[in-house]
Structure formats: C-alpha cells, structure tokens
Design goal:
Number of strands: 5
Structural class: alpha+beta
CATH architecture of the largest domain: Irregular
Number of helices: 3
Order of helices and strands: HHEEEEEH
Shape: elongated
Length: 99
C-alpha cells in the first residue's frame, strides 16, 4: 500500500471529511514521526510498533567492483520494531488462512 492508497481508504471510510483534509492529516502524522526521530526520540504507536533511530559507526568499506577501500561515514538509520498486537494479528490471520 502506498500513501495515496492509505489516504483514499481513510477518505472512503470517513465521507464527512474532505479528501484534501485526510491527506493533510496523514502528511502531518508522518511529518511529526520524522521530526521526533530527527530529534532522537522514539515514536511508539501502541499495538502497532515503535520507530527509533540507530547510530551506525563509520568504518572502512570495500567497493565490490574494484576492491578499493572506501571510507563509510557514520550515519543514523530508521529502525522499526513491531508491536505485540500487530504480530499477533499477522500470525493469527496467517493461521486462519492455512486452516
């Protein structure tokens, strides 16, 4: 699912809201998650999961094409850990489909 599909589904289930307002709400939620993570905060959505930032140290890497040594700079990468309820719902739905 892409963001526009998410906006459309929410708009379809809430006909009292304008499509442009739903789009603004979804964008604002994503912006707030990103800003919190940029500030180093962890963002937890109960039942869904938690977004956090992990720090990767700089290191010496290798260009696979040439074999040449390259410097890999330190960076911050997003990390997502699923919530208990999300895992349960995913595994429960999989078990039902197999039965």
């Amino acid at each position: 699912m892409i963001k526009s599909e998410l906006v459309q589904k929410i708009a379809d289930k809430n006909p009292h809201l304008y499509h442009r307002d739903v789009e603004r709400i979804v964008n604002k939620i994503f912006d707030e998650v990103i800003e919190s993570m940029k500030g180093g905060s962890r963002v937890e959505l109960r039942g869904f999961g938690a977004f956090s930032v992990k720090e990767r140290d700089g290191r010496q890497g290798r260009n696979p094409r040439t074999g040449e040594s390259v410097e890999v700079t330190p960076k911050r990468v997003p990390f997502f850990k699923t919530g208990k309820e999300l895992r349960a719902r995913l595994n429960g739905s999989i078990a039902k489909e197999k039965a």
